[in-house]
Automatic annotation (TrEMBL):
The chain crosses the membrane at residues 20-40, 168-188, 200-220, 241-262, 274-294. This is Protein LAZ1 homolog 2. It comes from Crotalaria pallida (Smooth rattlebox). It is found in: Membrane. GO terms for cellular component: membrane. Pfam families: Solute_trans_a. The keyword Transmembrane helix applies. Keywords: Membrane, Transmembrane, Transmembrane helix.
Amino acid sequence: MAPNNLSNYEEIYNNLRQPALIIGGCFVLVALVLSILLIFQHLRSYTNPAEQKWIVAVVSMVPIYASESILSLWNPRLSLACDILRNYYEAFALYSFGRYLIACLGGERRVVELLEDESEESLRKSLLDGPDKNHGIQHRSFCNFFWHPCMLGKDLLTIEKFGLVQYMILKTVCAFLAFILELCGVYGDGEFKWYYGYPYIAVVLNFSQMWALFCLVQFYNVTHERLQPIKPLAKFISFKAIVFATWWQGVGIALLCTFGVLPKEGKLQTGLQDFLICIEMAIAAVAHVFVFSAEPYHFLPVSAYGKITEEKLEAAVKIDEGDEEKSAMLQETTTEVEAPRTSVKESVQDIVVEGGQRVVKDVALTINQAMGPVGKGVTRIQQTFHHKTVVSSDDEEEESDIEVEKEVTQKEKLTVKGDEIV
């Protein structure tokens, strides 16, 4: 029965593979054309590098997802490699979206000022509503991150950055680990069995992604009023739908296959996931054209204009009025504004070099923050051992002094009487 079912599933897969490739290829073509055009529009009007380099990174998620999905659908042997690359870029795209929100608020220094103002205002309101003596001390506790994030002030930015970067690190490590386990034959993609590595990696990534998205949501809840000029809700929904939906879509298909709703044999499971992503990326590309439009960047801001030169020409002329000849002065003023022009090469260099430097700095900051408590713990242990060693040595010295004093005392008590020692 099992061989017949296996042959039936293989036959179904072979019959559906060609139409799926054609339909998926059409959707991928739409996604590639729209996304690449949008990226080139931003590179042509590259007037705000601080924001646009992160927009390009987020928009690039669509063509990368679409290309890897159609490649995996065309050659199932490449499905794991494509899935690993897709996971790498998903983590970077989530980080890029967080950096984009910070850039729209004016940079990290400006964000810290805004968060501190929000914290003071929230504390003032809470004290007016119901004064609490301990509230002023506990308003920066970690518990308030869940209930009152606005009270955290600049600590909210640190938690948000830590949440995004930890997902980048874990996603990268888990993708590499999945590759190693697959080479050893114990990964079991889509298999929820205890002797496979897939379920454990899925649980770790699920919690990591949920935490990263929750940090992003809390940061958005505090700053959404300041972000109203960029219409943040549409951007947030469109991006979150790609990251969240594709992940849970893959987990859902794996669960359906585990419970027998969908067949596990053949390549139907990975093929279905790749085919759905091809369709979804075309929809996401259409949404990005409107949500991440390049129109707001077509005009340079006042601060972006270059050198302004003003040239005045003066000439003396003579005017004849009847028999009299009068002299006059003719003036002409010419103003020139040097507006900067950015080439595609310079734009890409800014995205890769400066964006990469920002990523490295945040990763280093996160690793230092994670290793900080460990270092403090090791230091305390060393101090404890050192203290115990000093105390024990002091005790030994005191004991030796006491013994010496006892011997001296005993010698003083000894007296010689004749030939007898009393």
